[in-house]
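Something for you to look into today, if you have time. Just paste the record in under my message, thanks.
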Amino acid sequence: TSKIFLALSVLSPANSLVPSGAGIQTATSRLGNPMSTDYSSSRRAWMRTAFVVGTAFSPLVVVAADSPGATEQACKTTSDPFKTTKVCFRYGRDKDGRLRPVAADENGVSCSSVRNPSRFSAPWRIGFLPEEFDAGKAWESLKREVAATEGVIIREVDDAGYYLRATGPSAVPPGSTDDIEFTLNVAEKLVLYRSVTRTSVFLYPLQQPVNDNGSNLKRLEEIRGRLGWGKLSYDLDESPY
């Protein structure tokens, strides 16, 4: 129980929305030729939708804003004679600053799903010695690896509160979107995360969504592997749903 409480004790500063885009690119490549008559209007449009985050010693990470309405905390369900499809926009921290759990009828994993072992995955242990731990360096490393992940676009960053949200393509169903979130618990030197597919498809008479074969967890584990960070162990029957 104490271990589970530790995983949930995350920071709770207010979010700050930073438009962002995935991958590595320069603002000039998006704006065009500065000598062009369309440069000023292009620059204004670009500045409304994206903000470049980086340093002189690291690649620029572009954060892209979501499409209109993507922040609504709501679900929409449609049905036909063969299946039911539910699309949910549920992300962001709760009032206590914690990441949300993953519902039993969704594909995904979360460090907050302690009451649902099949949707739970343990926090990451940052791979630094305690006396060498640097929260800023750890956070920058995480952002770089998320931005470098194929198909993943960073959507929201709160550097002061150590919160990041990104999106990536879903494996199941094709064409859907996975919401990917991270927070850094500085006091415990842990990374907490959540990755969930927005669209769930239920084929009759099944009551569970079509399984994505653990694709959300696999993507997260690839990021962790590149960082070289560890993972806490828990007395929970952990499984990739």
The CA atoms of residues 163 and 183 lie 5 Å apart.
